[in-house]
């Protein structure tokens, strides 16, 4: 493998009770995607799986990213986030799976609720690695306050945590695109690690 740059960041948490983990916490919680999803799969895990490289590498919009991170921090301080997970290797599809199986709950997600450029295919929407995006879950009672904090920013409520064991994703034509148990998703995530 080629050399890889690794960044390690350490931060001080003033109140550990306000720390937010990635796992879905409760059925009925709302699932939000924060940030803009673009056709940016250059160098992605998805393209690597298909022996492709791509040319549209993720670009960072520093201004919107900083505003998003500061707003996430404010939401965290107010206790509005039930969970928070980055979208990096594998994009939205992987982040949804990890959030679901880490919490032991399913999710119902609709790709039509994600604002994207016209003509963006479902696979690109699911596996884009656009920078500075986050997947968060929010209790329904906190929805109004959460959305008011993010007013004027790019975000969308894309689904809900469910009380079953399935990650279900509705495609852009309203069809059932994904229906997988969280057990199968976790096994797919863990099995390559056992082969190393």
Structural descriptors:
196 residues; alpha+beta; 7 strands
Low-confidence stretches: none
Instruction: Write down how many β-strands occur, each being a DSSP E stretch of 2 or more residues.
Output: 7
* Overall pLDDT confidence: 93
Main β-sheet: number of strands, strand sense, barrel status? 7 strands, mixed
Helix/strand-derived category reads alpha+beta
- Tally of alpha and pi helices: 6
Radius of gyration: 17 Å
Query: How large is the share of residues in beta strands?
Result: 15-25%
Distance between the termini: 14 Å
Compressed to H and E, one letter per element, the order equals: EHHEHEHEHEEEH
Could you estimate the helical fraction of the residues in percent? Answer: 25-40%
Shape verdict:
globular
Sequence of strands across the biggest β-sheet = 2-4-1-5-3-6-7
Tell me what you see in this structure:
The protein is α+β, with helices and mostly antiparallel strands. The protein contains 6 helices and 7 strands. It has a 7-stranded mixed β-sheet with strand order 2-4-1-5-3-6-7. Strand 6 (166-170) and strand 7 (176-181) form a beta hairpin. The longest helix has 16 residues, at 62-77. It is globular and about 45 Å long. The two termini are 14 Å apart.
Topology:
Blueprint (H helix, E strand, L loop, with lengths): L29 E5 L10 H5 L12 H16 L5 E4 L4 H13 L2 E5 L11 H6 L6 E5 L4 H7 L5 E8 L3 E5 L5 E6 H13 L2
Parallel strand pairs: 3-6
Antiparallel strand pairs: 1-4, 1-5, 2-4, 3-5, 6-7
Helix pairs in contact: 3-6
């Amino acid at each position: 493998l080629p050399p890889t740059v690794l960044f390690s960041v350490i931060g001080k948490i003033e109140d550990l009770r306000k720390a937010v983990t990635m796992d879905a916490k409760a059925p009925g919680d709302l699932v939000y995607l924060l940030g803009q999803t673009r056709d940016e799969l250059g160098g992605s895990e998805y393209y690597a799986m298909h022996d492709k490289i791509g040319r549209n590498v993720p670009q960072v919009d520093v201004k919107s990213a900083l505003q998003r991170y500061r707003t996430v921090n404010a939401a965290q301080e107010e206790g509005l986030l039930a969970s928070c997970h980055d979208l990096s290797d594998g994009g939205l599809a992987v982040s949804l799976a990890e959030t679901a199986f880490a919490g032991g709950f399913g999710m119902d997600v609709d790709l039509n609720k994600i604002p994207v450029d016209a003509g963006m295919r479902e696979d690109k929407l699911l596996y884009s690695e656009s920078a500075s995006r986050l997947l968060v879950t929010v209790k329904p009672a906190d929805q109004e306050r959460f959305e008011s904090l993010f007013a004027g920013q790019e975000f969308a409520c894309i689904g809900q945590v469910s009380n079953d064991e399935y990650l279900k994703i509705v495609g852009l034509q309203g069809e059932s695109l994904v229906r997988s148990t969280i057990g199968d998703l976790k096994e797919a995530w863990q099995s390559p690690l056992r082969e190393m």
